[in-house]
DNA sequence: AGTATCTTTCCTGTTT
DNA sequence: GAAACAGGAAAGATAC
């Protein structure tokens, strides 16, 4: 180990801790590197070298716990963004960006020769106001709070304000010291963690993942040091409080994101047969990280909804992949996959909360969305409309809820390494059952078969299906008063409630709808956008939609009538808003988040004017 | 165990 | 007349 690490105990954004050192340290892969960052940041091959002028007073420069950098929390993002710009093919050009928290003035600094390498950072760059001149890699960066909405929300920042005595002036050179800090791009580790099971994460993966989540959620990178020695296996053992204790104010978000990730991995790694890898049914080709252009805020969007089989009538929706790429890059350690579907224009939901707390996922998503826009508080919960790019990260939500009930309720015969997956063991069971019975033999990708199975017709599938202990199925809901309302009860009279404990976490209906709207397999064929700016969408195939929902919920009795009743309940909570006078048309309300796609109805420019996709009204 | 929330089911009546 | 809408009521499931 280098003896003079300026980043003792913390690497986050480098600056939180590094600022404690008053000496200028050159870090990174550039010619001026003073030490091998890889030793500290094994995943830091896209660290960049910057010389940063940190505005602070020097009351606490001895590196013993003082944190004299009030800007630290956001620095990583700022610089990451800066860095990413240089990768965008315009390294020599002046770029204008905006951000709410800091102003970053980048000026040439011949003393630093930071050569950041490689990588394709496709980051949104609205966040930083910078003026970059000449040498793309050599900067003097002055970090100044701009009035600091974000800073104010940052405990560390607040704590340090007294010391920092920031003047918010770019000219306050007397209060600055120049440091070179490592800058992590948002995807700085090449997503190594994405290719591993969390249990296999090393410390670097943990930090990398933290960065990814923080970046997507707009969480300041200030307490990552407290995670610095934690491996994935440690994370798996941590509960929400543990996360919270390590990361005040935002720990729960990391916790939720992590649990969601685990959940999704579980789903996917055990459901290979329903993953049409040739067609990326799960959108597996794409990394959940942020290294796809314009998708900075996308989180680990495992497209769980896409795991659904299409309804029988959806066969015309062949599963042809948009890109046809095999999902090797998303291979999980055990052959499972993990990844989003955004390359299909699918932003998948990712409503956080593993605990199914609506408030939680709404908050999470909202904050993520905001990060994406040039509005104010990143903590704001209002959904922002942002033409074309609001692919926010989304929650982990709906997906958290998805389970393939067809495959549930069967014992698993191999024990998995993640005992702490307790909450999701049912997923594993389901997946195991699936693997056991189908994956290795004759995976059923036939939609009808799947649907049939979900209807409880397939004994193997439903062997442990909803029953009341007597083998009889019990219907849910209000009892019929007429008593002879036949049909639905014909199956239900002897059929039981499909809603069982296993249903838990299936996701919410609105999320399901939202995700369909982001999935070219279902949009615009089953649902379609009517006015994407206002969140207005239409249900095209109402009964098929209901069937699909019923499939998810393992409820073959689902009808559009029932589904629509549930939809109407959302009016009260303002997740949906009624659209009067227009049948089958709904509108996302203020409490729905992450619904806006950047490619509504998956229109293809080349096909303009010649198909139904071209009907988005604005 | 109690409560809140979400969803499902059934229902009556209304609107398109 | 059918389909959809609106919303009350009741009950199941789940989270806290």
UniProtKB/TrEMBL annotation:
What name does UniProt use for this protein? ETS domain-containing protein
Q: Where in the cell is it found?
A: Nucleus
Say which species the protein is native to. Daphnia sinensis
Ligase in keyword set = no
* Bias (Basic residues) ranges: 115-127
In the record, the note on similarity to other proteins reads: Belongs to the ETS family.
Q: Which InterPro entries match?
A: Ets_dom, ETS_fam, Pointed_dom, SAM/pointed_sf, WH-like_DNA-bd_sf, WH_DNA-bd_sf
Segments for region (Disordered)? 61-134, 148-178, 371-397, 459-502
* Keywords for the protein's UniProt record, in alphabetical order: DNA-binding, Nucleus
What Gene3D superfamilies does UniProt report for this protein, alphabetically? Transcription Factor, Ets-1, Winged helix-like DNA-binding domain superfamily/Winged helix DNA-binding domain
Q: Which GO terms describe its biological process?
A: cell differentiation
Q: How is this protein annotated for GO cellular component?
A: nucleus
